[in-house]
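We emphasize that the prediction below concerns an isolated chain of 125 residues; any contacts that depend on oligomerization or on bound cofactors are therefore not represented. The input was used exactly as deposited, without trimming of termini.
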Amino acid sequence: MKNYTITVNGNVYDVTVEEKGAGAAPAAAAAPKAPAAPKAPAPAPAAVPKSAGAGRIQVKAGAAGKVYQIPTTVGQSVQAGDAVVIIEAMKMEIPVVAPEAGTIASIDVAVGDAIEAGAVLATLN
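Result of the prediction step, given as a token string:
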């Protein structure tokens, strides 16, 4: 048995791998490659919010989920309380509303995107 420490999206896991027969060497060699793969995608999602967002007012997700629908477009005027993005969380459709009146400056997600609570979904001016 061999013990490995693997980091996935910032979470550290201790893993024990049982070796069986001569075929164990290729499997053990593949295990150290696994930590390198999660590190490469991690900067890409972090880069999206940094480059996105043209407006001064951020519209943030209140819960983690999946983008279900985007009923607005860039340049559209919205009032406080209007749905900007609709997310699906726990089999419910949850509208994410504009915190104040303005014009949609950017929509930083696409339908089907997985999002975390607090993620910036759109910006307003």
